[in-house]
Amino acid sequence: MPISFSPVLWLLAASVLIQLYYVGYYFLPFARRPEAAAADDSAAGPVSVLVCAHNELANLRRLLPLLLQQEYRPGFEVILIDDRSGDDTYLYVQQLTQYYPNVRLVSVHRTPEGLSPKKYALTLGIRAARHERLLFTDADCIPATRQWIREMQQDFARSADLVLGYSAYAPEPGFLNKLIRFETLLTGAQYLSFAWRGKPYMGVGRNLAYTQACFRTTKGFASHIRSLGGDDDLFVQDAARHGQRVAVQAEPAAHTLSEAAHTWSAWWRQKRRHLSAGKSYRFADRWRIGNFIGANLLFYFTTAALLFSRPDWVPLAVLWGVRTVAVGAAYAQIGRRLDDRLPVAWLPLLDVVYFFYYLALGISLFLYRNLRWK
């Protein structure tokens, strides 16, 4: 007598196969790729490092000295864009400019009505930059090493127009910190490995580099200047549409490091801003990301349906085991590759919580689309 399985079990199997495809084609090959040979320093050029800040004095006191300690022989300038700050940012940076000629200040006193404040401020900073190569980070970040500038600009010597970097969060006690770091690792696994496979779709403004020519080719932020978010991911979308060459720089020496949100509400607001730009992605990118997220959610929903209905325990256990081992191994290897390790024993729980948190965020954005910028 032939064995028959529940249709829900076949859905579970399909979701596992989709996840194994992402693991086998994107994540594991990217994690195992050999390190790129160091570029010849003779091909290096000076770099403009841009930091946009709004009332970030405490963070700037930590960041700017570390930027000035960067070891980069061709030279660099640091452009601080003071975006309508009400603290003493202007006075602090002015003092630095007296001692460091490579520190420059761009002040933004008002933003034209209807424009994204950050994109407008960044545009003014880019116009003031003296060098062709531009490197971006945020005021609440720090470079992981003194080689950050050197590592992030290497691919320009290999004809790249835009370079995607990775920005991790500092480990701290507590479940929320682990979840934020898991989300960051999983997002990094997607946008870095997809770009490595020739399908770039986003970057993070905390660690992103591109050339002045790339900015001009994409017409800057013109296509999304009125959207609050997207100075990083929507810019990458435009660059890909215009055929710009996108490189990935995932070496730990090229990372930046940030402090994660300390409350669930703060992280919720942050993720709503980040996800709000997704509706403007190219269809192929939304399809690729949606398949990955959807397969994971389908996996958990079909599991719940099987647990509370027909007990196909053996195939359910086999599929769960295969998926858990494969996905866990991929995430662990990516964590080692990016030097952003999480306790392996926590990965299954973090995975469950993250995907349902993501679903809640998506529902929230659909129902309540109003966003505010600082």
UniProtKB/TrEMBL annotation:
InterPro entries reported in the protein's UniProt record: Glyco_trans_2-like (IPR001173), Nucleotide-diphossugar_trans (IPR029044)
Entry-linked Gene3D superfamilies: Spore Coat Polysaccharide Biosynthesis Protein SpsA, Chain A (3.90.550.10)
UniProt domain Glycosyltransferase 2-like: residue ranges: 48-182
Taxonomic superkingdom: Bacteria
Keyword annotations: Glycosyltransferase, Membrane, Transferase, Transmembrane, Transmembrane helix
Entry's transmembrane regions: 6-28, 289-307, 313-332, 344-368
Family label: Belongs to the glycosyltransferase 2 family.
Protein name: Glycosyltransferase
Taxonomic source organism: Hymenobacter fastidiosus
